[in-house]
Amino acid sequence: MTELTELPPKFYSEARRLIRRLRESQPEQIRMVEGNLKDIVSMRISKLLSYASKGIPINRIKNIVDEEISLYLEVKKLLEAWLHGLEIMGDGDG
């Protein structure tokens, strides 16, 4: 399993500030920066979904930042409930 890349502790809030600053001072840079941020976020979400689907405890995930912890816990809980529902449904028509 690949690890999350290390990010600064407040990466997401810093990214929001950067976007706001660029909108005011360098609007031509917005598309590139937003594209890069979307790529980073997409890769991290993909890894977090993979961890959650495997039931990996939060304390075993390296380099998760504070802003991702609540997302991870919520997604993990939803996946566990969904998978539990599949097991129940598997007893019937299957």
What are the key terms here?
single chain; 94 residues; mainly alpha; 3 helices; 67% helix
Distance between the termini: 31 Å
Task: Please estimate the helix content.
Answer: 55-70%
The outline comes out as elongated
| Tally of discrete structural domains | 1
Mean pLDDT over the full residue set: 90
Residue runs with pLDDT of under 50 for 5 or more positions: none
The ordered string of helix (H) and strand (E) elements is HHH
What summary fits the major beta sheet?
none
Which percent range describes the beta-strand content? under 5%
For the CA atoms, what is the radius of gyration?
18 Å
Query: How many H/I helices?
Result: 3
Structural class: mainly alpha
Structure description:
- The chain has helices at residues 11-25, 30-53, 66-89.
- Helix 1 packs antiparallel against helix 2.
- It has one domain.
- The protein has 94 residues and is mostly helical.
Question: Topology of this protein?
Answer:
Layout: H1 11-25, H2 30-53, H3 66-89
Helix pairs in contact: 1-2, 2-3
Quick description:
With 94 residues, this protein is mainly α. The chain is 67% helix and 0% strand.
